[in-house]
Amino acid sequence: MDFTVIQGDIATQSADVLVNAAGTSLEMGSGVAGALRRGANGPINDDAVSNGPIDLGDVVVTDAYDLDAEYVVHAAAMPHYGDGRASDESIRTAVENTIAKAEELECDSIVVPVLGTGAAGYPFEEGAHTVCEALSNAESATLTDIRVIAYSRDEYETLKEIAEIIKAR
């Protein structure tokens, strides 16, 4: 599946689906989750938590409230209990389940952050590789606008380089 790399705040993006880098409790704390919670300006955290906890790699859908999206898919790439660390497998599974859920919802566009690399402690470069590879290997009948987002300029440059390598394969 083809995707583009962008830089910015996920909470300001316009798409059918914005993806939350969630933990298994679905509690929306800091980082991507915090930005989406603040941007939604509604009970999105309560909605998410009421569906949890979920298993590592699973996803839950909530309304996007005031975000410029139809849905927020909360992708549990990290455990919120125990060591709280993401892994290659948890990130890959969360991306795969996110794409499947977007397909089920018949969405055209999605914005995906590099899951598992903030509070979850997974190295950004490795997480970016896993997310880009999972998206590149995915197939979709409905998604035509797939964006992977990085917040900082440095992370964007790293993400862009990794995406170019994966796309060249």
From TrEMBL:
The lineage of its organism: Archaea, Methanobacteriati, Methanobacteriota, Stenosarchaea group, Halobacteria. Residues 1-167 form the Macro domain. Gene3D superfamilies: Leucine Aminopeptidase, subunit E, domain 1. It holds the Pfam family Macro. It comes from the Archaea. This is Appr-1-p processing protein.
